[in-house]
């Protein structure tokens, strides 16, 4: 089971628990005047057409950075979140803005034999902390597989692919790092959390 799936499942479980709690609070706090008024809706419950925060809206937010690659590929970094376990997860969208299908360059996997052996990935990505003068590489599991999006080879014209990469976290005082991916321009991104 991938870390991304586990994280998504965990978020869904927490969201369900919060919404269930809100439902109980709304029922428990109902008016006691016995009038024929329609029940008032909770301000925290999303309404139809409401633009409150959600996973879909987060993808539509302004990206932290846009990196242009070869053959019309564009990587939009949408978040870089530090978690309490000592990791930074970088999420984004890999877009094909060209007018024909593009074979994803093998250089994105990097040049480490162990990562290349596991197929196409974004294993060549790095975070550079110029303040501490350190470079952080994509993490690997115990079998040597990179903790990043894997298993893609081509992207059709106009298609978007959600991607992620997980790195060791820089020191807590470091909030800005340079994101690098082979064949793409570099960009400075801010780490939240």
UniProtKB/TrEMBL annotation:
It comes from the Bacteria. Residues 33-61 are annotated as: Disordered. PROSITE patterns: PROKAR_LIPOPROTEIN. This is Secreted protein. The lineage of its organism: Bacteria, Bacillati, Actinomycetota, Actinomycetes, Kitasatosporales.
């Amino acid at each position: 089971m991938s870390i991304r799936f586990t994280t998504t499942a965990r978020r869904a479980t927490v969201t369900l628990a919060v919404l269930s709690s809100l439902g109980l609070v709304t029922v428990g706090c109902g008016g006691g005047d016995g009038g024929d008024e329609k029940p008032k809706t909770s301000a925290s419950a999303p309404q139809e057409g409401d633009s409150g925060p959600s996973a879909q809206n987060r993808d539509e937010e302004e990206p932290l950075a846009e990196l242009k690659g070869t053959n019309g590929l564009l990587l939009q970094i949408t978040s870089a979140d530090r978690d309490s376990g000592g990791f930074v997860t970088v999420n984004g969208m890999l877009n094909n803005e060209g007018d024909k299908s593009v074979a994803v360059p093998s250089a994105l996997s990097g040049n480490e034999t162990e990562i290349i052996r596991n197929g196409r990935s974004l294993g060549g990505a790095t975070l550079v902390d110029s303040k501490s003068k350190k470079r952080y590489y994509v993490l690997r599991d115990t079998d040597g597989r990179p903790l990043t999006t894997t298993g893609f080879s081509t992207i059709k014209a106009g298609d978007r692919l959600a991607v992620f990469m997980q790195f060791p976290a820089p020191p807590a005082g470091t909030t800005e790092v340079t994101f690098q991916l082979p064949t793409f321009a570099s960009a400075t991104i801010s780490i939240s959390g």
